[in-house]
Amino acid sequence: MKNLLLASVAALMLAGCGFRPLYADGSFNEVGEGLITVDEINDRSGYLLRRELLKELAIGLPGLNERANLKVALEEDLERITLLTDGSVSRSFLEGRAEFTLTTESGEAFNGDAQVQIPISATQSPFGDVAAQTESSARAMRELAGEIVDDLRLQLESAR
């Protein structure tokens, strides 16, 4: 009897804490969703950018009191420069560019673009180069998300 009581109390506490089952259906997304939704963005970098945007926008944007949707088009390029005498690359740059549109329920739209450039030191190992590119891509998406949110904050502030 005591175990049953503890189990039911634990179940009630889990229900109230925002616990979300790992394999839940789509109806769970509506419970904890903020005012701003972010459309899915293709590829690994798009996933990272969307994740960072959701983190940045979880608290909302100042002056935005209605639901809104953010759409982002992402481009990512790797530029290799400075060839050494043996033909190898000593430096690379990862460039990320995003064009975005925040559309509110009332139909108001805020557009913009953001760009970041992340330097990568080339390594002699091909595996090290892949790891450096992967980490640079993650860093670029964090910085790009910050630039997008900063731009939206400025636009919303000037729209007041």
UniProtKB/TrEMBL annotation:
Residues 1-24 form the signal peptide. One of its GO terms (biological process) is Gram-negative-bacterium-type cell outer membrane assembly. InterPro entries: LPS_assembly_LptE (IPR007485). This is LPS-assembly lipoprotein. Keywords: Signal. It comes from the Bacteria. One of its GO terms (cellular component) is outer membrane.
